[in-house]
Amino acid sequence: MTSDEQSGDANPATVDPRVRPFDLPVLVADTAARDGWEAANSVIESHWDAFASVAPKYLLAALKALPGEAFVNMPSLSVAANYLQHVVIDGEPRRFFHDGRLTPNPDPEASANLDTLILLTGKAAGDRTAGRLEEARRTALEAKAVLGKISSADRGEFVGSLPHLRFQWGRTLDAAQASGALAEYEEAYDLARLTRQPVIARRAAGHIAWMHADRGRLNDADLWLARAQAEPATNGRYDVILFLTSALLKQDRQDPTAHVDLGRALGLPLGEQWAAALWVSALLAHGKPGASSVDARLERELERHPEVHLGGADARYVKAARARLARARPRLRDEIALIPTGTALDPLLEASHAYFEGRFTDALASSEEARKLTAAPRVEAPALLVASASHHELGHFPTAADSFRAANVIIQQERIFSAYTFVPARTLATIAEQAGEPIHGKPLTVGEDIAVPKLTNRERTVLELLSSGLSIQQIAAELYISPNTLKSAMQDLYRKLGVNSRAAAVHWAKQSDISFRTKN
Predict the structure, then answer these.
(1) pTM, two decimal places
(2) Backbone angles phi, psi at 505, to 5 degrees
(3) Which of 165, 189, 462, 513 has a 20 to 30 Å separation from 129 between CA atoms?
């Protein structure tokens, strides 16, 4: 490094490539640390034209100064880096447009390379986020086919890029509800661990955990959630999937602290997890007020994502959310069938509706259809329970007992106690007694919420003041107590609510629609 490179401003607003080109990587790194990768990439964009011809080495160094998440979100950055690498080495740039459009090298022998993989992956990601799921799926599979034509030796040259690419293929197949998503996530996780890329390892493990939790394989979800959490945290927004997974697992196991994890997820940009977050929110909604709040959110989201364009996993989550909300808000019951999902969710919900309408034979047929489509515990256990209840109503008592025992094995193995909610509590108790089986955990009846802790008048007052936004000193003065006494009271309140922070307590109050009309 020259003396010029060591002196001068450390963080210039702009860089003159003719005078101080070596400042650009420093500026990019500082901007990324301070304002995030998007702002840092804007710095590169604003200097691209000036640097590409006279200082490509420093432009390349600036790209390498971006955090890894930038390349996950913008695959074209890897193309840009590859382009600059060629410029630096042999001075013969290929055709390139920095806004992400790249004309691949027409040489057929060079078609199966990293540029091609990144271009296809970027296209698949773009189609996915635009809702063109079938096109995205085909493009992701095309990218996989290209990779399959590359020899192991040649793959070694860009092995560091493969975790990012395979993660995006997994996201695309996952969103489209296509087979192979889990395998791509697992490949991304293993390669990320091998190449020491904790960001992508954490993200891949988190999505694996969610896929297992979504399907009711809670034990596998526990394992992968722990693996994700073992990786160092970086960008908080990537942890939405971790908080949603934890909230779903706790809801399935009737843990009253599930809403804390949901609150943490909702406090971050949801991105592509918006529909999954609505589903978990609907599962945890307390009574009619809570259901109304989630329903309002759902309608707002559908203004941004019209139902006519919904497909894949998002359609399934929206439909599942509405099914849950319909228990508290009957007006929604007729709307549930508006979004066909092409999955086992459709016959499972039809089985539940048929049972509660007294169409027990139809309920049995739909339950059987749901089980034929999947053996996922989240579908199989409630389908067996609905079948058991239907057989019971038809007087088929031995068959009802057998179906209940089969469901109970799954529920006990996975501890997916939420499955019991598909059957009325009294019917459930009767069948369990006839089958000689226990009801595991603390099952909820249909439409019943997790028990709300009874608060004293004083605790309600404290919770109301915490929700008001006043400082600790102001609340203490309002109550004529010392700040230390207030903090002690707050800790007691947190323990009763099953939370560990003021923000979580306030979120609990909003979700519970608690009344503050009673005071000391």
Answers:
(1) 0.70
(2) -65, -40
(3) 189
